[in-house]
Amino acid sequence: MPPSSPASSSSDGFYDIAFKALLGALAVAVPLSNLAWLCGNLTAWATDSGRWAPYQPTEALLHPARLWPKAGETSLLIGARIIPVTAMTALALTAAIWWVRHKNSGNGRKKITGMAKAKDIEPLMAKAITVKARSLRPSLKNATHIDARDTGILLGNLQGTKHEVRMGYEDVAVAIMAPRSGKTTSLAIPSILNAPGPVLLTSNKAAGDAYTATLDARAAAGRVWSMDPQQIAHVQRQMWWNPLADAKTLDGAGRLAGHFLAASVDASQQGDFWSKAGSNILSQLFLAAALDERPITDVMQWLAFPADRTPLDILRDHQFTAVAAQLKGTVEGPPETRDGIYETARQYAAALLNSEIAAWVTPQKDIPEFRPSEFVTSTDTLYLLSKDGGGGASALIAACADSVMRAATAQAERAGGRLDPPMLAILDEAANVCKISDLPDLYSHLGSRGIIPITILQSYRQGQKVWGEPGMDAMWSAATVKVIGSGIDDPDFADKLSRLIGDHDVETTSTSTSESGKSTSVSMRQQRIMPADDIRALPKGTALCFATGMRVAMLDLRPWYLEPGADELAAASARASKAITARAIAKHMPGQSDFGKAA
Fold it and tell me: How far is the C-alpha of 487 from the C-alpha of 462, rounded, in Å?
């Protein structure tokens, strides 16, 4: 005979349903009867209809008149019937609402089991981050009250809670967020608005972006410098910067040439003969121009006429004989090789042929010079704007950003090791407009200097294209905070993130039926906390936070337009956007002066 039959299984199912129904009835009847007894007694006391009845909840629910015979029928109906049922319903609704909010916290988003709780990321919470700020910034050591903006950069709220999650002013961050996933509204703009010290922003947009949203607020904090060589915001030129100021050494000239190389070719192409040779020629000519205090545009004249001996004479006069010998060897080499090398260098620096672009990096009469060494000790703001694929123009943006960070490093060393207040560098669209070749290496020490970079990319592969796979891996590893927003469509990267988030134990219940009855067993199995498909489907307005030495946290982002004072900021942003439109129209009106020229 088989261990069970259809009849016995059906019977077991019936008894299981009946048992659950009995439990449900008891769950309602027990609290309801107790409420009826309590409310009935309170009604009798309030109407002076008898003494306090003994504890008989069932009698109070079914036959209240027996317990309180002197009470009126209407009073008992209200006190022992309507009020208990109403209270029971209210309690049930409250419990249901609480459960829904905690299960699907974060604006209706499903809360994921296994993610970090507040205690898991305590070093990023208000108390710990404030204590850390006191130790990092001497100016705050004896302060009785420290504003949140002085303690760190707000990343968001721990999902479903009011706990703010901040990165400290010794952290360095990488944010990988697709377009329209909150990278500007929830990360770049709030960080800029609340920065206590100097701010550097690179961007390829102006109207309706971080530039317009923060322009007025940062102008109130200090001077605003805008470098707009390709007229994205149609900014009237009110500054110029000398890229050769740091090129008076071979290393400095090489770094400057490296920016032109990185802006022109991908990392995979930078090691070939022509790329390296073209970069070497540029560095040698940059060195010569810097030593003789010439404008950078003179380099284009030397590239046009390789036989010009001026750079050779300058290098020899300043005791750079080995560099002069290398330059001479190239010039006097086989014509086809020389011409190929020089043509490569011309292509890298072609943007300097544009007089409007060149004007931003050559001395201008009656226009102040931007000096990175002075900027890093101020509360000023530097906006560096360039179009995607800007070639040499984006090279100048990267070179200026690099110069500022190097000046900040030097100032930190003079100040005892760290800037106070710290400098914030928001490298938005870094893979398009700010290709600093050794940025991954800089990540290893910038945070310890009080220089806080936040490199914002649209995808991990975008970073690999610029810095190569080893470089992007190095920057990812060196970043103490990684913020991952919605829109991750790379399956390999999503799976990598899934593995980093880890596994958690899941209960598995199994039921078996035999002659002796039904038995239930519970076992544990490992399951991914967030599979790759869940990471791909991460809702907008949320982000994953990977912080060194801590569990991965799910964050609710805090866009600037939902914060206090948003109306004023929105109005200021609208005014700045309208001003850009007006300048663009005026620039192309017949008879109007070119905004690219000095005022």
Answer: 14
- Residue type, position 229, single letter: P
Residue 322: the pLDDT is 96
Three-state DSSP class for residue 245: helix
At residue 554, the 3 state secondary structure works out as strand
Question: 484-533: per-residue pLDDT in tens?
Answer: 999 999 999 999 999 999 987 776 777 777 777 677 777 777 788 999 99
* Distance between CA atoms of residues 565 and 150, nearest Å: 19
- 79 pLDDT more than 80: no
Tokens of 334: 């086989």
Please state whether the peptide bond connecting residue 590 to the residue before it is cis, i.e. omega within 30 degrees of 0.
no
| Neighbouring C-beta atoms of residue 145, cutoff 10 Å | 7
Instruction: Judge whether 222 and 198 are in contact, CB under 8 Å.
Output: yes
Report the alpha-carbon distance of residue 186 to residue 527 in Å, rounded: 31
Task: Judge whether 36 and 64 are in contact, CB under 8 Å.
Answer: yes
Q: Is 455 helix (H, G, I), strand (E, B) or coil?
A: strand
Q: Which helix (H) or strand (E) holds 544?
A: strand 542-547
Given a contact cutoff of 8 angstroms between Cβ atoms, the answer to whether 292 and 314 are in contact is: yes
Rounded CA-CA distance 373/259 in Å is: 20
Tokens for 266, please give them. 């991908």
Contact between 52 and 105 under an 8 Å Cβ cutoff? The reply is no
Q: 336, 401 in Cβ contact below 8 A?
A: no
Which residue in 276, 259, 249, 245 sits closest to 438, CA to CA?
259
Which DSSP string corresponds to 507-524? EEEEEEEETTEEEEEEEE
Torsion sign over Cα 137, 142, 147, 148: positive
The pair of structure tokens assigned to 87 is 């209270």
Please answer whether residues 430 and 456 qualify as being in contact, where contact means their C-beta atoms are separated by less than 8 angstroms. Answer: yes
Report the run of H or E that residue 156 belongs to, with start and end.
strand 152-158
pLDDT of residue 245: 96
Query: Which three-class secondary structure string do you get for 195-212?
Result: CCCCEEEEECCCCCCHHH
Nearest Cα neighbor of 480 from 519, 510, 453 is 453
Instruction: Provide the 3-class DSSP secondary structure of residue 381.
Output: strand
Distance of CA 115 to the CA centre of its chain: 19
381-385 and 224-227 strand pairing: parallel
* Rounded distance between C-alpha atoms, residue 519 and residue 555, angstroms: 42
Quote the tokens at residue 307: 């036989």
Query: 139 and 420 in contact (C-beta within 8 Å)?
Result: yes
Q: What are phi and psi of 457, to 5 degrees?
A: -125, 160
Is the full-model pTM beyond 0.90? no
3-state secondary structure string, 50-103?
A: CCCCCCCHHHHHHCHHHHCCCCCHHHHHHHHHHHHHHHHHHHHHHHHHHHHHHH
Residue with tokens 């317990």: 67
Q: Report the alpha-carbon distance of residue 329 to residue 182 in Å, rounded.
A: 53
Distance CA 263, CA 349 (A): 10
Q: How far apart are CA 369 and CA 364, in angstroms?
A: 8
